[in-house]
């Protein structure tokens, strides 16, 4: 559960850009020196986007040329940050710019190439749908007070869900400048693991002709058993300003009235209201509690045609370190290879250890897997690296059997196998 504050004095700042702090992986040497990415690939008309631009060692004082953006986007603001490192006598600097954009229209819009110094970013595309009315909102939406409401999306329409498959869950809080503070909590379903994907996003949008600020969080919910999974309500507890008509009490009871005690304006209600900034209305802070609708999902058991270990994933890739640098084997001397499994849509803890078959004329010593998980804000990626040491017992022909991983493709709903080819050596 996290908290945030929103001051009523910031009413005119509702459409101002929100500063986002992006946690990015340290780039490898093969990455380009200038990169660009959008915080999400699609939205609706009226919503703002953030274009993140990063540069390694840019020229001193260099800034992105944002003029090409103004054809199809409103540039709402630009934030920048930098970090410097000094390692082994080498100085390097990485600069990040966050460009806050609002599309001028709908359809497939192109974010043009942006120049920073002598380098340019690649073009990007964003899908912008027409402005959403109340009839077009997701089915699982809590339309609470018009000033603050919750919206949730769970799963993918029409797609079956299997046990231990990750279910996407998106939670959005819409609010205007009447909101004072609050805490937003995700659901806590039983028999399921909930994990937040990346950092929460902040942007603005327009619904039913009204402007809102939005906090969006994405989660993965992984059911641990088959059957009916009930995802309980997400909750929001906070304080919001609520409009109340004047009660007709003696206006001299408030501080403003006491200041004007001897003035004939004291009995002029219109004048008193104009000084209060309202027209017959008092804005009073009151507690606010919102809950989203519950969501129920039918979780299918493991399919009969799934063989081997159960691994429901969107994609599986294998990499063999010997493919980069094949060894020269000698009898009695160890040779180690590292096999890496990269799985999209499952955490590293779900990846089973490899089944390594030993050649007839060798001893094999598999190591314990090194498992790590990460998220790109949209999906979980599990990585398992396993070292295997081979010691040939004699000279001559040496054959290393193929290595395969059997898994269930949650996109095609089919059993698949990914294979590393075998090796033939002369020891």
**CA distance, first residue to last residue:** 60 Å
What does the overall shape look like? globular
How is the biggest beta sheet arranged? 6 strands, antiparallel
Helix- and strand-based class? mainly beta
Q: Helical stretch count?
A: 3
Question: What fraction strand?
Answer: over 45%
Helix content: under 10%
Poorly predicted parts: 5-32, 132-144
Mean pLDDT metric: 79
Q: Compute the gyration radius: what is it?
A: 29 Å
Please give the number of β-strands. Answer: 32
Q: What is the gist of this entry?
A:
This protein is mainly beta and 427 residues long.
What does the model show?
By secondary structure, this protein is mainly β. The protein has three helices and 32 strands. The protein has helices at residues 255-259, 269-276, 321-324; strands at residues 2-5, 34-38, 42-44, 49-56, 73-87, 90-103, 107-111, 115-116, 119-120, 124-129, 141-142, 148-154, 161-162, 167-175, 179-185, 192-196, 201-207, 210-223, 227-231, 235-245, 281-291, 295-300, 312-313, 315-320, 335-344, 362-366, 370-375, 380-392, 397-400, 403-409, 414-420, 423-426. The strands form nine sheets. Strands 11, 12, 14, 16, 17 and 18 form a six-stranded antiparallel β-sheet that branches. Strands 24, 25, 26, 27 and 28 form a five-stranded antiparallel β-sheet that branches. A four-stranded antiparallel β-sheet has the order 1-15-20-21, with no helix packed on it. It is globular and about 95 Å long. Mean pLDDT is 79; it is low at 5-32 and 132-144.
